[in-house]
Amino acid sequence: MTAEGIGTRFVGRERELDELTALLERAAGGRGRLVLVGGEPGIGKSRLASELSQIATERGASVLWGRGWEDAGAPPYWPWVQALRAYIRSTARYRRDTSSQSTWSRNLAT
Ligand SMILES: Nc1ncnc2c1ncn2[C@@H]1O[C@H](COP(=O)(O)OP(=O)(O)OP(=O)(O)O)[C@@H](O)[C@H]1O
Ligand SMILES: [Mg+2]
Question: Cα–Cα distance between 54 and 56 in angstroms, integer?
């Protein structure tokens, strides 16, 4: 994924990032959560998610991204398709032998 602004200084969202990091820890302990981050365009939602994903990756988690498409024409469930595709492509079995994949996973991964 594109890591929005990663590499530039992240400021003023310590509370939100701490909260999300605590939830990440809980998820790692088997108590997952769904979190909705809302706000005006450009307020920093994607950047916050990128910062969290960096922390998650450093802690050994797999991070999958799916992005919505504002205009018409996106395939159904597009964000989920992107995330599942990335997951399938990352699996050792898929890399080893795509011919042994079930049809649905081959279709989803391409
Ligand atoms: N806390 C922050 N510290 C430093 N830069 C930030 C912070 N939050 C956001 N930015 C920067 O501001 C810009 C816009 O942020 P971002 O893309 O995350 O907004 P967004 O809320 O996801 O916007 P949109 O609603 O359009 O998707 C990016 O360049 C990002 O790196
Ligand atoms: Mg965004």
Answer: 5
